[in-house]
Description:
The chain is built from seven helices and 27 strands. It is of the alpha+beta class.
Amino acid sequence: xxxxxxxxxxxxxxxxxxxxxxxxxxxxxxxxxxxxxxxxxxxxxxxxxxxxxxxxxxxxxxxxxxxxxxxxxxxxxxxxxxxxxxxxxxxxxxxxxxxxxxxxxxxxxxxxxxxxxxxxxxxxxxxxxxxxxxxxxxxxxxxxxxxxxxxxxxxxxxxxxxxxxxxxxxxxxxxxxxxxxxxxxxxxxxxxxxxxxxxxxxxxxxxxxxxxxxxxxxxxxxxxxxxxxxxxxxxxxxxxxxxxxxxxxxxxxxxxxxxxxxxxxxxxxxxxxxxxxxxxxxxxxxxxxxxxxxxxxxxxxxxxxxxxxxxxxxxxxxxxxxxxxxxxxxxxxxxxxxxxxxxxxxxxxxxxxxxxxxxxxxxxxxxxxxxxxxxxxxxxxxxxxxxxxxxxxxxxxxxxxxxxxxxxxxxxxxxxxxxxxxxxxxxxxxxxxxxxxxxxxxxxxxxxxxxxxxx
Length: 455
């Protein structure tokens, strides 16, 4: 409440009444999440004050820092009402050092936790993880930093985040994501903080598999023109949209050191059967990949153009309980729950019907491609007879490009693909007409596989 900081700026002729030079302004208000009567406030002229009775009485509890800094942020701890973290910015006074303080006694005493942060990057914000009291995040003028021991030591968490002023940090309570707001008006998300919350535990082991969070089979629309997928949705070019998180289940594991070969990750169903095998990244430290909730893809036709070799993924699995297995010298397992899109009205039976339908089509497509690969090998050796050539022509029209698929009559392989595509772009069960087409395809498939056995 300094009167000299409350005067209108400017001269005798023209007053500058923009308010930019006014002080005594509250910049941060932080109610305790544990005690509604405890509220912390910070001002743009360096003061920190607290009330412990809902605003009836206030006490000055400013940390011992040079005057007139901007109290950019106060973080009221989610673990103790008397604990808080204060970030003070003094770069407008020529002091570019970071100033972050912590108290555990309602501001009676403070100590700095800035040691280890870059000396020439002033701080904007500090946040405490809601599940691990020792885990802190700090937003500085040129990036983001992390502490695993409540500020005793810091290390960069920059990764591929562009160099920018990190003005605010929030932790999304249900998803456990770190939300990052930069001065460039860019928003970034670090998905699933479980690995950072449990990193000290993981470091005590040679390898550690973190429990994946619940995965959802979200429906995502795709804009497709002439068979080319242009991306999610159909927003006009230049519209401000964000990138979606990795599709399916996010899998994170820790390795004390790089392995001789990349680790194998298996997805098992509740009966213990492997539904998908993935190759994981191989780095010392944290590693992350995602499983897109699909099973092992069918065999591909090697001689086809890349766009026509066959799908890279199998059918989407039915919602339920699955297990992630990290295969090393010993297997590390964690359960992952797959839930349906909460916006959808489909039943569990609908999801099962869709899965069985696509699974069967993929099995037929896989067997056809096994046969085509074998016939191609015969042709290379010059042993493909007339019966084999006739069968080849029945199995596929051999389209050379997407235009061929429109101009040439569909053979068995193309009929399966024509049936797969519309269903793969939906999340609903097959229609009666699709069931009828599948039955005709199955009869033709059985006939031609019998013919191959005689060829």
